Amino acid sequence: MRSYADTHCDTVVKLYCDGQRLRKNAKQIDLERLSVYGTGIQVFALWLQPWYYEKAFARTMQYLRFYQAELAANQDKICPAFTYADIEKNKQNNKISAILSLEGGEAIESDLERISFFYEQGVRMLSLTWNHGNALADGVLAPQKGGLTPLGKRAVQNMEKMGMILDVSHLSDAGFYEVAHLMQKPFIASHSNARAICDHPRNLTDAQLQIMREIGGYVGLNFYPPFVAQKESVGTEDLLRQLLYLLDKAGEDAVGFGTDFDGIDKMPYDMRGVEDMTIFLERLEKELGPTLLQKVCEENFLRVTKKIWKDT
Ligand SMILES: [Zn+2]
Fold first, then answer.
1. CA of 139 to the centre of ligand 1 (A)
2. Fold of 5-308
3. Does position 51 have pLDDT exceeding 80, yes or no?
4. Which of 120, 177, 182, 217 could form a disulfide with 212 if both were Cys (CB 3.0 to 4.6 A apart)?
5. How far apart are the first and last CA of the chain?
6. What separation in Å is there between the alpha carbon of 94 and the centre of ligand 1?
7. 267 C-alpha vs ligand 1 centroid, how far in Å?
8. What does the alpha-carbon distance between residue 101 and residue 20 come to, in Å, rounded to a whole number?
């Protein structure tokens, strides 16, 4: 089966909290099911439940050490990627590439040095916020709907210098535009859809998708039904409608997948988990043709990593 990049899943935190393992589990992603797709790319987010914000750094480190231990235990199937060359090497060695991200800047506890620390620990993508406001910026549900704080602006500049991907999924609209103004390099929305199709603050407006097109950014299609369509029953046909709209507005070079698997309590009615990506991929093959499908599956995200990450 065709390999693909998925720029967001919450599998690590889900497994840690439920005492399950990465190789085989009853959640939406495990390595046995993921490896059917060959040498794909899976971004694993470390998301912090709000009740851990008081000890955000320590709790995030527990998730990070669990992630590292799970990768170490499964080297026959998956290897970390810190550079573009690592992804190429992993493909040659017939391995899935694992990329580590932080979902929400709470983990740094207002200390910008910790962004460098997490980079050294292998983190290559970070979103300033989850849904709430924090020391760096306001998330989409923060009542004051503010943008970036002075500390958040410095964090963005530091990330750009160190070659860490900035993820604006969950960031407020005001924050989005400030990031667009501050950054020279592209940024991404790892798991967000189009608001014109499904009016939810977690989704991007047409104007934001246009900016993604102009900066050479990337938008990962989110599979969570309430972000896909405003109706009772959401299936892969609705995912397709979102994807086609994103391709139209952000462009064929700026769209991929950001499934949100293991972060979502509901799936499209005709999918159970990663094992059913095949249903969607087969549908896309017919709809998009092989060249565009290859862009959506991997090339668009690879282009962004090449542009943003350091070579070594
Ligand atoms: Zn999320």
1. 11
2. TIM Barrel (3.20.20)
3. yes
4. 217
5. 30
6. 29
7. 15
8. 20
Q: What are phi and psi of 172, to 5 degrees?
A: -60, 160
pLDDT over 80 (residue 1): no
The amino acid occupying position 253 is D
Q: Which residues of 263-273 are buried (b: 16+ CB within 10 A; e: fewer)?
A: bbeebbeebeb
Q: How many CA atoms lie within 13 A of 312 on its CB side?
A: 0
How many CB atoms lie under 10 A from the CB of residue 245?
18
How many C-beta atoms lie closer than 10 Å to residue 44's C-beta? 26
Tokens at 180, concatenated: 């667009």
The alpha helices in the chain, defined as continuous H runs, are 11-18, 31-34, 56-73, 84-92, 113-120, 150-162, 173-182, 206-215, 225-228, 236-250, 277-294, 300-308
> Could you count the other beta carbons within 10 Å of the beta carbon of residue 105?
26
Which tokens hold the place of 312?
Answer: 């070594």
- Separation of CA 224 and ligand 1 centre (Å): 10
Contacts of 27 (CB under 8 A, 6+ apart): 11, 14, 15, 18, 20, 261, 262, 273
Q: What is the model's pLDDT at position 312?
A: 84
Q: How many residues does the chain have?
A: 312
Q: Read off the pTM.
A: 0.98
